[in-house]
Automatic annotation (TrEMBL), chains A, B:
<dbReference type="InterPro" id="IPR000683">
    <property type="entry name" value="Gfo/Idh/MocA-like_OxRdtase_N"/>
</dbReference>
<keyword id="KW-0560">Oxidoreductase</keyword>
<dbReference type="GO" id="GO:0047837">
    <property type="term" value="F:D-xylose 1-dehydrogenase (NADP+) activity"/>
</dbReference>
<dbReference type="InterPro" id="IPR055170">
    <property type="entry name" value="GFO_IDH_MocA-like_dom"/>
</dbReference>
<dbReference type="InterPro" id="IPR050984">
    <property type="entry name" value="Gfo/Idh/MocA_domain"/>
</dbReference>
<dbReference type="Pfam" id="PF01408">
    <property type="entry name" value="GFO_IDH_MocA"/>
</dbReference>
<dbReference type="InterPro" id="IPR036291">
    <property type="entry name" value="NAD(P)-bd_dom_sf"/>
</dbReference>
<comment type="similarity">
    <text>Belongs to the Gfo/Idh/MocA family.</text>
</comment>
<protein>
    <recommendedName>
        <fullName>Trans-1,2-dihydrobenzene-1,2-diol dehydrogenase</fullName>
        <ecNumber>1.1.1.179</ecNumber>
        <ecNumber>1.3.1.20</ecNumber>
    </recommendedName>
</protein>
<dbReference type="GO" id="GO:0047115">
    <property type="term" value="F:trans-1,2-dihydrobenzene-1,2-diol dehydrogenase activity"/>
</dbReference>
<feature type="domain" description="GFO/IDH/MocA-like oxidoreductase">
    <location>
        <begin position="133"/>
        <end position="245"/>
    </location>
</feature>
<dbReference type="Pfam" id="PF22725">
    <property type="entry name" value="GFO_IDH_MocA_C3"/>
</dbReference>
<dbReference type="GO" id="GO:0000166">
    <property type="term" value="F:nucleotide binding"/>
</dbReference>
<feature type="domain" description="Gfo/Idh/MocA-like oxidoreductase N-terminal">
    <location>
        <begin position="3"/>
        <end position="120"/>
    </location>
</feature>
Amino acid sequence: MTIRWGIVTAGKISHDFVNAFNSYPNKGDQVIAAVAARTKPEEFAKLHNIPIVFDSYKALAESNEIDVAYIGALNPDHYNISKLFLENGKHVLCEKPLCLNYKQAESLIRFAKNKKLFLMEAVWSRFSPTYIAIEKEINSGKLGDVMFVEVNFGVPIVTVDRLRKKELGGSSVMDIGIYTLQFAQYIFKEEPKKVTTVGGLNEDGVDIYETIILEYDGDRRAVLNVDSRFKMWNKATVVGTNGHITIEDPFHFPEIFINTDGTVEKFPLHKSSLPYNFRNSAGLVYQALEVEKCLKEGLIESPRMSHKESLVLAKLEQTVRKQLGVYYDVDDQEFP
Amino acid sequence: MTIRWGIVTAGKISHDFVNAFNSYPNKGDQVIAAVAARTKPEEFAKLHNIPIVFDSYKALAESNEIDVAYIGALNPDHYNISKLFLENGKHVLCEKPLCLNYKQAESLIRFAKNKKLFLMEAVWSRFSPTYIAIEKEINSGKLGDVMFVEVNFGVPIVTVDRLRKKELGGSSVMDIGIYTLQFAQYIFKEEPKKVTTVGGLNEDGVDIYETIILEYDGDRRAVLNVDSRFKMWNKATVVGTNGHITIEDPFHFPEIFINTDGTVEKFPLHKSSLPYNFRNSAGLVYQALEVEKCLKEGLIESPRMSHKESLVLAKLEQTVRKQLGVYYDVDDQEFP
């Protein structure tokens, strides 16, 4: 069974996803079959050798040319576009954050489940070989009991529309903070019992920086420092009672971590013919491999990035936003 | 004018201070003249070649053999012992924290000022050549505007009486957290407008870990992670709009920092004949050099570690303690 991908939008992240996919040598039995974008889909298709082109998402969703859609749209469109593809019997890999808030995410996941279709939030970090290796280290017990996680993520994107405008779903926690939240959740694997946020907003009422403290049972905690104003050192550290591991920059899809004995562990990414928009985007291919695997096993969610995980992330993002006073119009709406 | 030091207590930190002093080649015109301790002062004097020995603090305070006292006692005794020496006309260098709370610190400082005697809290970090070098880097403007400071300090001392017992002035923020607070204040040089603390207590009602967020004007912040349960990576990072500096372990008296261009800057400490109890204690000599300098200039406080700075630290320590629900008996008392 060949898995046929449809790419939705011809933006920066879609470019990186397709580039990562096309340049990866062992991607198994899957192909990129089609692309749909409102503007210039032909250019994108030509650049990436994609045979079928649509200038509307609906046309792609209704076509019989694809099995699974990759949604690279802006945050406010994730819910509607994902639903459109699910309605038309397509599996969905949707960029993070899955939705704008918890109610939307819950509704979308319920819809996919009812349709018995695969749905995954594109938290590509979870499929990083480095992450899988550090999980192994932690499980080996070398660190002792893991008590503390710290993540820093600072990128100077405060003037980028996607980040700064509320109508575009702008928000630091929704754009980059999500990487720090998912890291904490990846390590602690349970819902925190308390969230404390300190941060600041821009003139559009959108959070431009924050520090988030997640408290877990057993006096364990995660401290997440997020900033869209400047570059930080962008590492993550996991501290246990017997040692600690540091994941090097960029922690959100790293090639290097420093083990507790000081050993430098390397997981280099594959080379690509085209340049990327974002750092280490070659790693985007690993989530495609996961989708292929899940679809072949008949799963409707990935065990490594489950629906429950997406719901916990949605809840945490919403809590952080509300603690800072960031509200979207959809926060007042109900979803089926 | 020779500055004659009297050492008060023969404990671990006094040992390190005297060892650092004795083994430093260029300590100028100052000597260690006497020691006072309740138990085994002779052993301490013999080990460190100190000519005069007292078995009571009062006898040392009333003697004419010293000009300045170094107070290495436990936290609850700082106020009384410092006052005893000031009453008897001696200058005082007192271990940090200066006092148990703000009222005590204010009272002690007022007392020293009235007596026109020198008083300094032994925040030895402030005299580190590494700190002075990073201050120069920051002032050069290379980092741009400094917006964020992060410090981690974790040391497995949760079972040590000094830390865990309230009657001994136990508290993580008072024992190791102070190093993180003073670092933030060293960089931002003004009082934070808001303090947010998340942490946990032991069965004696003493804080054993915390994360402290200090918010400064202009959307700047410091995040301080303190833990007495396990070792952390014990670095400090200063992030500006154009770059960042990392101070290596142990950040509280470092020998190395990583400049914003990646250059490794080294400031090695002098070698000592005797071993130390604490890391990099050789650096304790620099505060003695500062005291000598101040006394020769007729100052009653150090410009690098002023009374005002001690009061801000006392206020911050108290705020953190209160946010976590840690109370000392002296918190209910008034001081003259």
